[in-house]
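User: Can you write out an input/output pair for a complex, sequences first and structure second?

Assistant: Here is one pair. Inputs:
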Amino acid sequence: MELQQEVEQFLYRQSELLDTKQWQAWIDLFADDGVYWMPADPAHEHWDGVPSIFAEDKNLMAVRMKRVLHPDAWSQRPLWGTNHVVSNTIIESYDSSEVIVRSRFHMMELRRDDVRHFAGAYRHHLRKTAEGYRIKLQRVDMTNAQAAYDYVLQVWV
Amino acid sequence: MLQERVPDLSRRLSEFVEPDRVRREVYTDPAIFELEMQRIHERVWIYCGHESQVPKTGDYYAVQIGRQPMVMVRGAHGKVNVLYNRCPHRGNLMVGDRYGSSGEFFRCSYHAWTFHHDGRLRSIPMMESGYAGTPYGKDHPDCSMKRAARVENYRGFVFASLSPEGPSLKDFLGEARVAFDDMCDRAPQGEVEVVPNCFRVIQKSNWKIFLENQLDALHPSVTHQSTGRAAHEVEKEIEKKTGHAPLSYHMLSAFATVTIDKWDNFQTLNYPHGHCILTGYMGLRPKDPDTLAYEKTLIDAYGQKRMEEILGVNIHHVLIYPGLSVQSPLQQLRAVRPLGVDRTLTEIWHFRLKGAPEAIYRRSLAYYNLVNSPATLVNADDLENFWKCHQGLSSEGGDWVSFARHFGRDIQNGERVETAANCGTSEAPMRNQMKAWARYMAAQ
């Protein structure tokens, strides 16, 4: 149960960093070789070499962060905020160095006067380090991924 | 309302489009939108898809042409057909999914009428007793699925026209054919294959706003400067650490490093029917081992001289009016499907060069993911501008959209209108598109 709670707290903290727009702190949760991946096709098993909605290492995450923080990122000007709820946390496997954990998320987004909802499954591949868990791979299978996007996604879900 | 406005509109079309400016209603009036669907999208050649999307007999893809739900299907003897997605019996959509396999024939989910893949009626339950004494049956035209008036294929790219009249696909495309030639020629085997994934993004703006942006060389360094600068900063950090940053960073940082004045060095070539080519080197021929290995495959296939010609083609974007934007050097295309006067769907695909090394595909993939995915680092700011444009054009704050930049300096070269030297940011492509638009709209 201790592991369950530890992992849940990690997932909650990660989503809180997104909702409070603490982009650098969010990126810091990833291992140096960590990858954030949202597959374009749920059947894909590896992020490399296939079309993806997101397939970002820390360098690309830095580009995205610097872009949204730039004063001339026009699309970032309007009122915009998100609210994540993370739940259904299931520990898939663990050993002394790594934990693989699945969970479900629901994200509500407000942009100007428009509300959008996104939901799906996370699968985190967490590495234990002296500083706590670091994400080796976060897979995001969004249920909406196959539908047409009304506008686009600006940051990670 | 439409019936009243149509004849009126035809008389007044010249009042909507002037050589260097356009009335705002052209973008915002629902009656004009309806007329555009009739007179442009449902008449001219519209891109349906690539034949590799439907590799096996019975494979289909649903596609919207103007307001018409169509289905592209692989039929007998490998032929790709385009049919109205409608059962002739009671009007049911024949296929309800975006894509799939219909098996050996289409079968309506309502009353089990079945059809061959070319649309001909195959069977009706208890047909002989049910239709005894009526003219209906296999030979009656009202009992078959209606076919698109014309279907043609250029190097694997399938187009349909819902009008029996008009130029052939080849004549319609004219020199804009280079979009497909450049894409296919870059493959050592001379053809491309679709990567089976379509990113679909909706823009809350009129379809023409998207098309006008495609070859607008003034906008990239303004709209996309945040992405360009962010990518440039990270690119420099990577170079400091490892000596070499991936080419994808260069594709993004170019939005900052190619400053606004440098875009005048580009050129646009404008053609009848509204098509346009933006020339410009995309930085895709570095001297790295991957590129050299790829050049070798082209030399083996075509010889040194032809390889130089193929890789020397200097294209940034090709616009095929009214519904396709192609980036041939990176094997990407965006098909435009108008959903309403203020809503436009883009369907975004990319392709593999048959016979080219995996590393070259990875460049195309990187661009597809970074620029064209629904989490795009680039188009988010375009879409924001398109929405703002549409909102502004819906207001009474002004009646005109201006396309006057470098007006009067275009060079007429036969059928082609070229921008003059150092006029790459000319609004010639928009003037050319609206000229084609007015011609299409005036035709009864």
